[in-house]
From TrEMBL, chains A, B:
Sequence ranges assigned to domain HTH lacI-type in this UniProt record: 7-61
Keyword check for Ion transport: no
Source organism: Atribacter laminatus
Name of this chain's protein: Catabolite control protein A
Keywords of the record: DNA-binding, Transcription, Transcription regulation
Lineage: Bacteria, Pseudomonadati, Atribacterota, Atribacteria, Atribacterales
Record-linked CDD domains: HTH_LacI (cd01392), PBP1_LacI_sugar_binding-like (cd06267)
Length: 338, 338
């Protein structure tokens, strides 16, 4: 047999005396092939110079089923904690997890998606950078099942599972209003991120219901950079004395905000109350434990993962957003306004 | 042509009128193929029913060169920060990065490695769970280039780049001894992790040089679980009054330790000085900024990545450990013992 013509599965099947399906299952590590039959098939394939990669794959004693998880900021414990939940979920169902990080960069997201398609993952969990689905063209063209996690698009191009972020923004604001704070600073990331936009809508809604006018000088936009948030917060408090409470887009940035508030000479919570989002593990372990909005990360991840497995099984992608109700977790960083 | 015999690259080359090498480059997205030639090659391949996956791969406008990075704890910002450095390094050199998380689990490490080999990464950066190289058998058999990052094996099976952890443990301990602390608690993770073992050796060395006997009651072993560290620290301080300083294996666990110390009614640094390791971003942003040992993460990552690229280029894996010198970063969590 010429070296340049690898044997077909049909030829291997004929020589071993089994069906083509059985050979295919054996060489792709699918279950339901007896160890002895699998051994014979591999031996025969090796004798016939079947491509080395295929043989190597068959010898790896592990399912090749893989999910790709694309996160937007690996240095935020919020994502690390969700990855751990996803791993538990998928491992128990026979899937491996490989991860990509986009660092909130739209081009990096495109490259990550292309890489995962190239590596032939069975499905993708994606926390998207923007609110449009431009980067999903390859995915949709290749019919790779995908579920968005934690953020959604403006158009229902792909199914998504998010926290009810508008409700979360509302709960955070309502909590502070009920404590008597009427001048509430909102330190947010940029609104191309859907959760930022939705939390802000909730903030505005709560203000409206309390009869308080929205004051646009009480909104700061920052990037996810800890130092950027620190500098902008410090600058605000040097210039302005009227605020008594702050809502921060997420806990990891709230740590930076707290440091800035302390560094300008104010105390928490006596001078300034602070609320974050995410309920990351360290938020309860800070010297001043942080009041936060808990999105129920585990439920978000499990719901998104179930949806993804269903899309993989049924080869069918349902659009639409499933939102998980968040809860307010009150700790020491918020008190009555004096 | 029978459907079950895919055309060879040789046949495509002949029909298009180019070399076999050019066809291979075009179908594998390698550079140096003119867009027009590439188009002709793909068209011909499609006409001849070349396997769909290969065509799809060729159409994805991105290099398929990939590095797999296997980290041991994705929820520790130490790793998130190293991943960001690795991404910058590899992206500028035309490589994509895919990640796996082992969560300090030896079996999970084995599965992660098998998954990455299966996905045919060009090389692997690994922060290993244990000190023996058992899980590397598949890698070494398949001759996949690998460099260990942050930890090393007992035997020089694979090249590694680490912080000089013994020196780091020494610097942390020396700093506290020079401040007059003679009863120093060491909260460490288990010693199957090489950096834990090495930091501990440095601690013992500094004590010896200061003429202080090593007291084994001043060593606590904890897991990477924030709550486990918190509980063990609290229990120690309820039972013992003699310690005036604590060294903690890493910053993220030090946050837990600080909370436990505060919760038993002690103050930092006046009652208890604390030193961590890693210099993660938030360590400088804590209300009590944390004194820590900076391993120079960026240099560690770049050194390991250069080594890996060299191993890929030369198809040659040099054994041996390269250690990067750490520095002591003094902040507010340590003061003179009174």
């Amino acid at each position: 047999m010429k070296k340049s013509n690898p044997p077909t599965i049909r030829e291997i099947a004929r020589l071993v005396g089994v069906s083509v399906n059985t050979v295919s299952r054996a060489l792709n590590n699918k279950p339901d092939v007896s160890p002895e039959t699998k051994k014979n098939i591999i031996k025969t394939a090796q004798l016939l110079n079947y491509t080395p990669n295929a043989i190597a794959r068959a010898l790896v004693q592990r399912s090749t089923r893989t999910i790709g998880m694309v996160m937007s900021d690996i240095s935020d414990p919020f994502f690390g904690e969700m990855v751990k939940d996803a791993e538990v979920f998928f491992r128990s169902r026979g899937y491996n997890l490989i991860l990509c990080n986009t660092q909130e960069n739209f081009d990096q997201e495109k490259h990550s998606i292309e890489t995962l398609i190239n590596k032939r993952v069975d499905g993708i969990l994606l926390t998207p950078v923007g609110r449009n689905g431009e980067n999903l063209q390859e995915i949709l063209k290749n019919r790779v099942p995908i579920v968005l996690l934690g953020r959604h698009f403006d158009e229902p191009i792909a199914p998504s599972v998010t926290s009810n972020d508008e409700r979360g923004g509302y709960l955070a604001t309502q909590h502070l209003l009920e404590l008597g704070h009427h001048k509430i600073l909102f330190i947010n990331v940029f609104h191309h991120i859907s959760s930022a936009h939705d939390r802000f809508l909730g903030y505005q809604k709560a203000l409206r219901e309390f009869g308080i006018d929205y004051d646009e000088s009480l909104l700061i936009h920052a990037s996810f950079d800890l130092d950027d948030v620190y500098q902008k917060t410090k600058k605000f408090f040097y210039q302005s004395g009227k605020v008594t409470a702050v809502i921060v887009f997420c806990d990891i940035l709230a740590i930076s905000v707290m440091k800035a508030v302390i560094d300008v000479g104010l105390t928490i919570p006596r001078d300034i109350s602070i609320v974050g989002f995410d309920n990351i593990n360290i938020s309860s372990l800070l010297p001043i434990p942080l009041t936060t909005i808990d999105p129920n990360k585990k439920k978000m991840v499990e719901t998104a993962s179930e949806l993804l497995l269903e899309a993989i099984r049924l080869d069918n992608i349902k659009a639409g957003n499933l939102s998980i109700e968040p809860t307010l977790t009150i700790r020491s960083s918020t008190i009555l306004s004096v």
